[in-house]
Specification:
2 domains; UDP-galactose 4-epimerase, domain 1; alpha/beta; binds nicotinamide-adenine-dinucleotide; 332 residues; binds 2'deoxy-thymidine-5'-diphospho-alpha-D-glucose; seven-stranded parallel beta sheet
Length: 332
């Protein structure tokens, strides 16, 4: 089995590569990644010498890069994306390019060479916000940000390749992942590393927005199952049911690290901020999947990882990140 992982130098992609190397030691893995600010080969330092793993630096929007990386692959899992909502509010163009046009380039090549399974990694953000209850896969799409609108475009395109060409496409919509190797712009990795540096935790608005904080390991087990048993043309929600308001999450992180609550600073809210995400995951559970981590276990494990792996995030926070942080939070 030969599998192409795109965006494998990012947070979830690199965790999934680690997962596959441990659970499918005979699979050949190709990782195609452009190495944007979010792509980091340090995430894969321990696997780079594995003879069945190959890294190719390239852009999913470039047909020649995609052709080279996909050659001989049986399966494709597309993680590559611009993934941060706040950056999409600043500059939507690169989101449309990678998250929509890049998907089309991948689908075309997969169609041309007859890939046997194409998994498009989408997000629960395509549904928009839900006050009560949980979204089912059949609910309508109401994306709120340029990021989620682009992800909706990418997955709709993937679906169209199933309907029109009968391509073996599966779409997944996951909740907020947390865990090792997450670029420290996302809230949990940002709050944990800020707390470790005795810096403020910038909570947007009242902090009562709710997210389902799922451990990335649980996302990996779900994807593994979907690769084996998911049905073509289907959409699968992937959530752990770990709902927690942001303010509570911030306080939990501070408690875990023995830091004072006065580090919390309420700042101007994100424009178009979705209040709550929640997924109905009966379809995935019917495949006999369940998460291992509840909210507190997922947060505890994540915080511990950042506390023990300063070598990983300190260089990031002293690079491009500094200007980003100043732009995003300086006058907020
Ligand atoms: P990330 O930002 O950490 O990683 C994205 C990776 O894609 C990076 O390595 C980057 O270099 C690469 N990339 C970006 N543009 C590229 C291009 N044009 N060509 C090739 N590579 C490119 O993102 P993540 O958090 O790991 O998310 C992975 C996927 O999962 C994304 O599709 C995202 O929309 C989706 N998702 C993320 C979450 C989450 O909580 N992080 C939840 C649900 C879905
Ligand atoms: O739900 C899945 C999505 O989760 C993925 O598709 C996205 O790729 C991923 O970035 C994530 O999006 P969110 O916008 O939910 O994640 P973020 O970490 O940016 O924010 C989580 C919550 O925390 C949200 O309610 C905004 C809030 N927040 C975020 C930051 C960065 C803060 O209060 N302060 C912050 O500094």
């Amino acid at each position: 089995m030969k599998i192409l992982i795109t965006g494998g130098a990012g947070f979830i992609g690199s965790n999934f590569i680690h997962y596959l190397i441990h659970t499918r030691p005979d699979w050949e893995i190709v990782n195609l990644d452009k190495l944007t600010y979010a792509g980091n080969l340090a995430n894969l330092k321990d696997v780079e010498k594995d003879p069945l793993y190959k890294f190719i630096k390239g852009d999913i929007c470039h047909p020649a890069d995609v052709k080279k990386a996909m050659a001989g692959c049986d399966m494709v899992v597309n993680f590559a994306a611009e993934s941060h909502v706040d950056r999409s509010i600043e500059e939507p163009g690169s989101f449309l390019r990678t998250d929509i046009l890049g998907v089309q380039v991948l689908l075309e090549e997969a169609k041309r060479i007859g890939v046997k399974r194409f998994v498009q990694i989408s997000t629960d953000e395509v549904y928009g916000s839900i006050a009560k209850g949980a979204f089912k896969e059949t609910d309508s799409l109401n994306p709120s940000s340029p990021y989620s609108a682009s992800k909706a475009g990418g997955e709709l395109l993937a679906r169209s390749y199933w309907v029109t060409y009968g391509m073996p496409v599966i779409i997944t919509r996951a909740a907020n992942n947390i865990g090792p190797y997450q670029y420290p712009e996302k809230v949990v990795s940002l709050f944990a590393t800020n707390a470790l540096e005795n810096k403020e935790l910038p909570v947007y608005g009242d902090g009562l927005q709710v997210r389902d904080y799922m451990h990335v390991y649980d996302h990996c087990t779900a994807l593994d199952l979907i690769l084996k048993e998911g049905k073509f043309g289907e959409i699968y929600n992937i959530g752990a049911g770990n709902e927690m308001p942001n303010l509570e999450m911030a306080k939990f992180i501070l408690r875990e690290l023995g830091k004072p609550e006065r580090l919390i600073r309420h700042v101007t809210d994100r424009p178009g901020h979705d209040r709550r995400y929640a997924l109905d995951c009966k379809k995935l559970r019917a495949l006999d999947w369940q998460p291992e981590y509840d909210a507190e276990q997922a947060l505890r494990d994540t915080v511990r990882w950042y506390a023990e792996n300063r070598w990983w995030w300190e260089p990031i926070k002293s690079g491009e990140f500094r200007q980003y942080y100043e732009r995003m939070y300086g006058k907020r």
